[in-house]
Design a protein that fits this description.
The chain is α+β, with helices and mostly antiparallel strands. It folds into 2 domains: 6-124 and 126-132, Beta Polymerase, domain 2 (2-Layer Sandwich), CATH 3.30.460.10; 135-224, no CATH class. It has helices at residues 11-26, 35-41, 61-68, 87-91, 136-148, 157-175, 182-185, 197-207, 215-224; strands spanning 31-34, 51-56, 79-81, 95-100, 109-115, 125-128, 131-134. Strands 1-2-5-4-3 form a 5-stranded mixed sheet. A hairpin with an 8-residue loop joins β4 and β5 (109-115). The longest helix has 19 residues, at 157-175.
């Protein structure tokens, strides 16, 4: 689609996305805006988002945190939060969270940041208004992974939302004759815990009808967009 723009997120989320992109460039940290925000920007779904999710290249967390910290105001309860009781524990983390206010009013917005190889995968994102935004194929892979995680193997609101996003992504790719690039598909091999089709199908079997899709259509569309292997 040619009319992509960050503005679809709304002014506050769009401003925060640009802030994060600027800090990542300062830190020379390859990054990708992922999650529902990416699907909203690309016109796959319509939904309000209050939080953002970014992936950055492995071993770039400390550099990005250092670039962000000078721009946060403790008086506004803005902060970088990293798990761990000691400096060594914190330095070993591959994910962190920031809270930042955008604009003159409103609650702080949250950004979750995690290290992932997708930030080093050129076909996993494109530049939209100066921000590296995940492609629909990348988001399809991430939704597959989210659905397959063991803590989502039973019916839940989160699993249902992920299944709805999966269905929307599959139908979008089929409508625009897009396929998942090989380098994006290979990201499944980096998933921890290991991606298992058995977990994926167990969850899809429970939530598909509520997500407006059938198990058979999911498998057909996966094959149609280049995901040829759909069993362990």
């Amino acid at each position: 689609m040619s009319n992509l723009n960050i503005g679809r997120l709304g002014p506050r989320a769009a401003g925060l996305a640009r802030f994060m992109a600027d800090r990542a460039r300062e830190a020379q940290a390859p990054y990708v805006l992922i999650g529902a925000s990416a699907l909203i920007i690309r016109g796959v779904i319509r939904r309000e988002t209050k939080d953002l999710d970014f992936n950055i290249a492995p071993r770039k967390s400390a550099e990005l945190q250092n670039a962000i910290a000078p721009h946060l105001q403790t008086a506004r309860n803005e902060a970088v939060l990293v798990d761990g009781k000691t400096t060594v524990d914190k330095d070993a983390q591959t994910s962190f969270r920031i809270y930042k206010q955008v604009g003159l009013a409103g609650d702080n917005m949250k950004v979750d940041v995690s290290e992932n190889m997708c930030a080093l995968t050129p076909s996993a994102y494109t530049n939209v208004d100066g921000v590296h935004v995940a492609t629909v194929p990348l988001m399809l892979i991430f939704k597959m992974c989210a659905i397959a995680r063991q803590n989502r193997s039973t019916w839940s609101e989160k699993a249902l939302k992920d299944a709805m996003d999966l269905a929307a992504s599959l139908r979008y790719l089929k409508a625009y004759n897009e396929v998942v690039p090989a380098d994006v598909l290979r990201l499944l091999a980096h998933e921890q815990p290991r991606f298992l089709w058995s977990n994926f199908w167990a969850t899809i079997g429970q939530v598909a009808s509520n997500a407006g899709i059938t198990v058979e259509e999911v498998e057909y569309l996966l094959h149609a967009v280049g995901v040829s292997k759909t069993r362990d």
